[in-house]
Each structure stands twice: as structure tokens, then as C-alpha cells.
């Protein structure tokens, strides 16, 4: 089982977190606990040279001798998988490679910015690779195909991010200086009636 | 400025999307938190709007914020709203958010059940997929129970994309709802041979995950996995299977033997390192499991070690790491083969990679011997000096101690060396493991008597130089060592060279800066030392020395009396007063030394750490019972300084019992033992503090011996252990020379016929004798200690619940809950419910235990067939007895099916077990290629199988079992396929069979319970499946017992009847596009999906390959239930051959009897009486003549076919009750005399009653 997948950059900023196990804590909220785990993992991983092995005995929070951190470092990003002993170490390393290559295909030359701005899409891609902590698909073409079909489905529904973004950019591109300067918007509360007909 | 405001508000008007949010956060690096809090406010506004697009956008942003660590649980309900959007785009966002922030304690999860169910059955496969993915992350026990059945159907979905997701999620469902494992397992097993590789891989994944925790239940799958292993080319699947075999082999050594060959082949042939590594790992597991039985696998071990060496030597750090990891597994059983690679492993200790160094350290642990221990430790000590990180150094420290202390100091030949190593380790800066070193020092000093003189000298040096350890803050951890040093010097003070000096060292003012618990030990042991010093000084003529010592104590102790630590203070003031008194006596020239020494008299024996746990509880002692009333507040405060308290307490008692007489002493000891047994805190003290003094009888004098130490090691900070290594080597050399001399002498005496190999070869283990006679005191155990080792399994482990026997045939009670059942359950009165449950749970338990026993026997004596045969007969009887509770055949078709099925499960079951045995015992040596291996194996297997089958199986079922056996062996694909389908059919039939049992058990079982306790005669089988229509193509069977009315509140309008129809393909062609249509009457209507016309047919949601049967359910709405209904219907379908396809149709008549509107509802007898008294019910009666059945059969029939339950039964008279789906009460009073049965009935609806009675009459006229 994969217990968690963490992606963060060289400074420890999380770019994607995916916990397949609930880590309850007596005092901490779920989110705080997760952030602690990220910090600890980053601390463990970041001080390692690039030419040492990619396996690490689990940190104290994610716990237990059965757990292992398996990670890869790509340019500015760390991809860390926390797994238990039922997973093959080298297999998971391959899986990370598959995942990253899939990202590369879907985003066309993926870089950290893609992950920053499209966290949701990265999640959708990951969902086709790992499900509930278990490896779902390892064939890259199959993964890409499924992701694309779903993207098309989204587009056929009118798209999600497209609509509001279009509107916003339209407003932003309006020639603002031409708007009369003396309009006092003040405390008038502008209510958006309904945005559905986008 | 104004413009900015305008722009800002317009921005807000049109909602930030995720990208804008991210951009915003990046632009507000300085006041990120503030910016995000405004964003959250905006999101809250957006969530209040009705527009789902706005909501989805907000939820998407929340998911991002959740990643940054913000709590978003307040939006849980909005997430559920977005999940329920009909658009895939939004649904996906909702499920993503849910999977990120829902967990088991999120309460809105219970609102999602119906939504998820809807999504699971959505026509759009991606809706289903998204729901499955989301569910896999937040499934709860409730969701798992409610949705298990839906997910199970998805496992046979037409799209592989859904199938593989459904298969994977089943693992999560099993974890949360273990009851689903057995019903779902057959289908999961089927998926191992799914045509789609993704689905297959998912199934392998799930089963491996299950088997890893409870391997023994999956042994029977070994042949199947073996086949997969030799045929699959997918490395992922192979890795998983090979890992699984690694878990299975310890349970079945024969499996290991079979595996070695193909695995070795894989090792030689594969190019994938991951696969190679797993193969090596599993071969190691096999070798471990075989190590006792089969010594002749040195070739395989060599191969593994050799491959691992290649991995370790590889430049890839990952391979190096894994190589070391696997090496450590070999080490456990074959240490010799690893030891030859010591050079390589020591080399890894110098690796720059910490993970690798740690792994190498692990290996060293197993590689030490008496011979090389010193050498290895020396090397490690060098590393300790070099290591920069504290964690690694700490790790080294613990490893050194582990290596030396393992198996009771087995490898230490020179304890002086070890003590000096420990002393050297105290020079480590900033280690956390001071206590570890301390406990080692204590342990060695206590258990090795011969070393005490040396240890005391070393400890005295340590105490003298204590300032080195207390000096700076960084060394905090290490001052724990002083605890041990002080104690050893005090306890064994008779060995001290210069006790006065040590005493002075212990009373330095600097000591007051040490932690409290150490100070306490200092004070206590200063008193012991004082006693010794006194003793030695009193012997002299000069009495002033003794008085000076007392004076020293009196001067120094007040410092401790002022201590903030209670423990220190108490001890110090106590001892101070004592010394003052002694001083007084001294001034009167009284000899006091003897008496003072008596204070601390006694021998000390170590006690095993587990000793306390192993004390057997005396008979008649209930540890859980309160002795007194529970105390109002806990006493835990007293026990805080546990470690010291436990020890010192006994010491105090020692001071007392010099005066107390023996009997009183024994009594007190008893009391204390009791106290300790009842004190939960007592056990918790660390092992080192558990050393309890054994009371020495009387006052035994311990002579004070002056020892002159020859080893001048007073200067701390000198690497002295090296000297011991040298000394040791010299000693060994000497010994060897001496031995040689002896040998020569012997040889001379004997005439020297043989050459001794010892001369040339390296010295063997036994040659090294310990430096001095080391008497390692064994740890004490209580009398009658229980030998059992504690089971360390975590009781909270969710996998424990999944330890379920999967080979056992499914019992009636095991069925995944379908929604309809819950409504029926709700109607049950609680008492009856409990009873029924108890009965149900009793049944399978009995069976399973019996079966397990049998299985064991089977395994043990799989050759003794005659016995087996008998057993199986017994087995079948059990099986039948159970079956009889359930059903009786109506038509001839059902009857034949029934009997065949009654026999099939046990046969299949035993077949499977013996099958595995057979498969394992028949381990041929496979030829070179794997393909050929399976082929070759298949042929003889088949022959023998048919040869032995008649012996091992009941004679009447050879057809059923034989194909199964051959099926497993046969590698010819076509044949297998056919047979598989046959099997499938069997399985499906079986399933349905159980299904119907389930429905009947409400009536059937209860009637037995209430009515037929005394009668032994079994009930005839009953079934309410009846033939609906049949043609040459298809057979339709109907089961109509299954009603539901969703909500009890609106019984009047929402009455539904669910009809289960089984379609069985009787021809050789494929049946598809089946449409089921019924001509609606005014009263009854087929429920059709929204938007379809009143005459449209319903599409049957599956296709039927030849020979397959499947079940579909149709829901009818019924207005009035007082009259029976007949509905005409047609089934249209396409018969598809290889070359042609034709439309066919089949007419049928659906008959809804009034009984089918009744629901088995239990009723209390007093409620029943009230109902009859109420006077609302109309009366009617009927007489049946010529009924020859026993009374309980009769009741069972009424219960089963007409859904009544027995309220009360007295002799040949019984009252029965049922309720219609619209809430009509129906009460019966059944009386029998001779062959006449009279039924008096009451109901609030006379028409209904009349019809029900007619139907009952008909039931009995038929037989």
C-alpha cells in the first residue's frame, strides 16, 4: 500500500499532497498533522545528496519500521511516496518515473509552474495512476488516454475553468481609464445575480 | 486609486478561479496569511450562492488551501453539494475535495450514500470512475456496508476501466466491512483471469494485499498464482505474485520446493532489476522456510548471495541499499554464506550514504563471532569518532551495544574490554543514549561477578572525573552514566581501591547540578560507601580516621537536604540523621561498622524483564475485582520517580528485617508481592530497575578485601580498549601455543598417526576460551512461569478482522446487504431479532470449527483415503442438515438443482484442499523452459487425478469434481475456457441458491426455533423459485418473495413489489439485447425509468453467453393488494450465432399472489393477544382434509410460502402472524387433529384474508 504521496519543491513548499491513510493526532487537526508530516519528510529528504540512494526509513510521524520513503528528485521538485513493505522499492521508483513522464506528456514539458497552477489536473492524472493507495495503472499510454477522454468530457460540458476566466480576462482587458473617475462605488454591495448562463 | 478599487470589486464580482488564487498568493508573499483569510471570506460568500459553477469553483480553491494546511472541514456540506452535481466537471471537483479532506469522523459522509450509489450506477463510466476513486479515499464502515453490493456488481462491468477500479476498491471495502470478504471473494478470484491485464493486475494487487496479512487463508490459491507467474509477462503482476509467494512459503514448505526452479530461471533470464530483486527475496524466503528440512540448496543460496554481491557492488546506490537489505535476510538462517562477504560490508560502512551505512550496520549485527567481535567493534569505534551527524553516531552507539550484548553476551570473551568500550563511549558528545550505556554497565556489573573488581575501578574513575560529563550542557544525555557508576561503586564498594576518595567524589558540591534521580542514587550509595569506609577504618587502631569520615558526611549532606527534589531531600535527611547518630556512638568509642554494614547487606540477582508478566495468576484470584471500594483519586503521583522507587523500597525493607523475625518477614513479603501484583505501575519500571534484591538470611559478613589493581587506567579519555584487544590477542596466542604443546604431547603419546588440521587452519569458535571464568548470572524467572510467548499482534490491526477462511462454502447468513433487507429488518421486533441473530451466528460457527478440524486432518493424512471417505460422509450430513432448513423443491427442475447443489459445496471444498495438496506433493522437476514445465506438469497430473479421484471423493459426484481438478492442471486453452464457464454457472447457481435461503430464513428458521425444538425429523427442502417460462433458447425462473416498502410511514401509497427473475441461456448461442416488458394493468404497473412510455420494455442489464444464467430485478408498483394479480409479459431478445442473429421472443405470465404481499413480521404473543382483542379484525376459517404432513412441516410451509411467523405454539396448535406491505394484520390459529387441519384466521381486510386462505389451501392440495 502507498500511504501518502507528497510533491514539494526544493524549499519544502507543497505542490501536491495525497494521503491515502488518515493520520489522526491527539492534539493536532488533520491539516496540521499533514503539514507536520510534509515538514518532517522535507527535512529528511532535502538534506540528502543527489547521488545517494532513493530510499529512506520512514520518519517518526508517518511511523513504523514497515514504512519507507521512496523519492525522486527532479530539478526543483521532490516526488515522495510513502509505502509499506508490500510494495517493491524499485517498482515504486519506476512508478514515479511513469507518473512524471505522464505529467510531461499531459502538460507538454512539465515544469513546477504547471503543478503550481494546475494542482487539480495533477490530481486527476494521479487518480488514474494510484487509487486509494494501490497502483491502478502503470501503462502510460492508457493513463494518458483516460485523462484525455475525461478532459474532452469536461470540455463538452462547457469547461470549468474556461468560463469564469474568460469573463475575468474580458473585464481586465477593458480599458479602465475610460471609466468615469467620479463614480463612487463606496459601500454599495454588488451582488452577482447568477452566473449560470456562461 | 479609485480605479484599483473598481477593478478589485469587479474582480471579486467574477470570482477568482484557482489560477487567480495561486497568482494572488504568490503576489502577496509578505502578508500571505492575511491575503488567504480574505480569500477564504470570499469563498464563504461564493458558497452561499445557488449557482453550482460558483460553488464548484470555490470548492476547487478550498482544495488548494487544504494543501497549504488550512482547515476546510467547515465546507464539508458544500463539498457534498458539488459532488451531487449532474455535470461531470463539477462532480469531479467535489469528489476530489472530498477525497482530500473527508475522513472517517467527518459526519456529512453519511449523507453521501445515496449520491454515491447513484453515481456508481451512472451510465457514464467516468461518473462511476470518479465516484469509485473518491470513495476509495473516504470509505467508512457504513458506506462499505451499504455499497458493498453495488461495487461488487461493478466488478463485472463491461468496461475494464470500471472493473479494475471496482476490484481495487474492494480491498478498502473489506478492511472497513470484513463481512463482505467471503461473499465477494469468488468474484474477485474470477478477476484473476480477466481478459484485461489492468483488471487482472488489480485483482492480483488486492489478493496480495489481503494475503500478506493472513497468508494461510490464501494457500489454496497457490496453484492459480503459480500458473499466473509462469504465464504472465507483466512485471508489475509478477513482482506482486512473487512477493505473495514470499509470504506463503513459510506456511507450506512444499510450495517452496516447487517455486525454486522457476524463480531461479527468472533470476537468470530477467533484465528488470526490480523483478530480479524480488525473485532473490522470495528465493531467500523459500530457503528460510526450507532450512530445517532440506539442507541441499547451497546452490540456490550461492546464487542469491552472488547476485546480491553484484547488487551491492553496483554503482547505483539504490541497488546497493536493496542488496544489503536482502543480505540481512539471508544472514538469519545462513550466516556462514554472508560472513564470507564481510569485506564488502565493512566497506559499505564507509559509504557516504547514511541509509547504506545503517543497512551495513544491521548486517554486522549478525556477522560477529567470538573471533571477530573485537575487530568489528574497533572499526565501529573508529566510525563513532569520525561520524559527524548525531543521529548516525547514536545509531552506531546502539549498534555497538546491540552487537556486544546480543544473546546474553554470547560473543564477548573479555568483559574488561567491554567495560572499557562502554567507558569510552561515555566520551561521546551529545548522545541521547546515556541511559543505554548506563543500563549495560549495570547489567554487566551485576551479572558477571568476575568483572566487578574491574568495573568498580573504572566507575570510580568515572566518578572522579564526573566534571567532564557535567561540564557543558551538550553532554546532558551522558550524565545518566553517572547513575550507573554511582550505584556500582556503592553496591560493590568492597572492591574499591580507595573508597574514601570515591566517597569524597560523590559528595562534591558539583553533584547538586545533576538531575534529581541521579543525585538520589548518589546520596544512597554514598551511605553504602560510608559503611564500607567505616568498616575498613575501624579495623585500624586509629579511630580518628573513622570520625573524620563521619564528619565529611555531616558536612556535605546538608547540601542535598536542601535539594528541591523530594527524593534526594528525603534520603539525604534520613542518612544525615543516621550519620549524626553514628558520630555520637563513635565519640563514645563504640564499634558501629558491623551494624552500619548490615544496613546494606544482601546479594542481588537479576530478574528477567518478562518475569513479572509470567507470574501465573494463583487460582481463585480475580485481578479485576476491587479489593476495596475504588479510590476517589488516582495514586499515580506517588509513583512518578518509578525507576528509583521500585528499587529503593526494597532496600528500605532490608534495613528493617534485621530486627524483624522470619515469620513476620514472610508475611510482609507476601503482602508486598500482592501489592506489587496489583500495582499497575510496578511493572512499568524499566528493566534495569527491576532487579530485585534477594533477601539474604541473617547478617552475613562481607569481607573487605584490599585489591591492588594491576591495570593503571586512571586517566580518562585514553583509548584503552585497544590495549585490551592487544592483551586479548596475546592471551589467545599464548593459549594456542599451549594447546599446540599439548597436542604435540598427545600426538607423541599416541604415536602421531594423524595430522591435526588445527595447525594450519584458522582457529575455530570453540578454541577461544573466555579470558576469565565468566559467570553470567541467568535472569531469574518466577516459579511456574508460563512458557508461552506473548502474542504481540496489535489488537487494533484492521487486518485481524480479515482473517477469514475463504474455502468454506458460503453460509446462508453471509450475503451482502441489499437495501430491501434493511426495511424488512426494521419490522422485526427486537427480541425476535436477537434470537434469530443468535441462531444464525451459532450455525456457521459450529460448521466452521468442524470443517477446520477436518481440513487439518486432511492435510496431515492426505494418503489415508479410507478414513477420509468416512469423514466426508459426515461432512455431507452436516451440509444437508443445514440445507434442509431452507428450501423444498417445488418443481422438478428446482428439485434436481437443489440436490446437486446440496452435494456440490462440500465436494468442491474438499476437492480444493486435496487439490492443493496434490498440486504440491506432485512436484516434478520442471524442464528448462517454463512453458514446457507447465505442460509437462499438466499431463501426469491429469492422469493421477483421475486415478485418485474415485478414492478421495464421494462416489456420486465424480463429474463435478474431476473437471475442476483437471481444469487447474490443463494448459490447453479452449478446453479450459469451456470448463470455466461451466464452473461459473455452478457458482452463480450457488449464489442464487444462498440468496433464496436468505429470504426464507426469516420464516423457515424461526418456525424451527419456535415450533420444532423437540422434533428431530428434518424438514423437507422448500424453494420458491418457480419456472416462469421456457423456450429452447432461454429459461426464466422467478422468485417473488422479495417485497419492500421503503418507508413504513406511507404504507398506503408507496407499495412496491420486487420480482427477481433468473435468465438462463439454454442454447449454444449468445443472447443479447434482452428486453423485458409487461402489459400494465390498472392495479399493477412495471416501474420504468423516467421518460420512457408506458409500453416500453425494460432492457435487461446484461448479456448471456451460452450456458450462463444471471438474475435481474424488476420493480412493480401495486395499488391494491387484496386481490391476486396476473400480468402478461414478453421477453424479446436477439440470438446471436457466429454467422447469424435472430430476434426471438418469449411470452410469460407473472402471477402475484396475495401471499407475496405479505411480509414475515415477528410479533410478541402479548401484542398478538391485544390485536385479537381489539375487535377490528374480521374472522374467517378454512379446513384442510387429508394433510399427512407432520405439524411442524405444515407450519414451516406456511411460514415459508406465505410469509408468516409463528407467535406461539402449544402441542398441535399454533398462532401465526404476518403483515401485508400496506399494513394489514393477518392472524392465524392453526389446529391439527389427525389428518384434519383447521385454520381460523382474522384480518382487517376480508378480501385479502379470503385470498390468502385460498392460497394456503392450494399449497396443501398440491402435495
UniProtKB/TrEMBL annotation, chain A:
Record's keyword terms, sorted: Cytoplasmic vesicle, Golgi apparatus, Membrane, Protein transport, Transport
InterPro entries to which the protein is assigned, alphabetical: AP_complex_ssu, AP_mu_sigma_su, APS3, Clathrin_sm-chain_CS, Longin-like_dom_sf
GO CC, alphabetical: AP-3 adaptor complex; cytoplasmic vesicle membrane; Golgi apparatus
Domain (AP complex mu/sigma subunit) ranges: 1-153
Topological relation to the membrane, as annotated: Peripheral membrane protein
GO biological process per UniProt: Golgi to vacuole transport; intracellular protein transport
Pfam families, sorted: Clat_adaptor_s
Predominant place of localization: membrane
Compartments, record wording: Cytoplasmic vesicle membrane; Golgi apparatus
PROSITE patterns, per database record: CLAT_ADAPTOR_S
Protein family: Belongs to the adaptor complexes small subunit family.
Its job: Part of the AP-3 complex, an adaptor-related complex which is not clathrin-associated. The complex is associated with the Golgi region as well as more peripheral structures. It facilitates the budding of vesicles from the Golgi membrane and may be directly involved in trafficking to lysosomes. In concert with the BLOC-1 complex, AP-3 is required to target cargos into vesicles assembled at cell bodies for delivery into neurites and nerve terminals.
UniProt xrefs under PANTHER family: ADAPTOR COMPLEXES SMALL SUBUNIT FAMILY
Name of the protein described by the UniProt record: AP complex mu/sigma subunit domain-containing protein
Organism: Gasterosteus aculeatus aculeatus (three-spined stickleback)
Lineage summary: Eukaryota, Metazoa, Chordata, Craniata, Vertebrata
Automatic annotation (TrEMBL), chain B:
Regions of compositional bias (Acidic residues) in chain numbering: 777-794, 952-965
Annotated AP-3 complex subunit delta domain residues: 660-807
Listed GO CC annotations: AP-3 adaptor complex; axon cytoplasm; endosome membrane; Golgi membrane; presynaptic endosome; terminal bouton
Compositionally skewed regions (Basic residues) per UniProt: 741-758, 847-856, 970-979, 987-999
Annotated Basic and acidic residues bias: 648-675, 725-740, 795-825, 857-869
Protein family per UniProt: Belongs to the adaptor complexes large subunit family.
The protein's name in its UniProt record: AP-3 complex subunit delta-1
Organism of origin: Gasterosteus aculeatus aculeatus
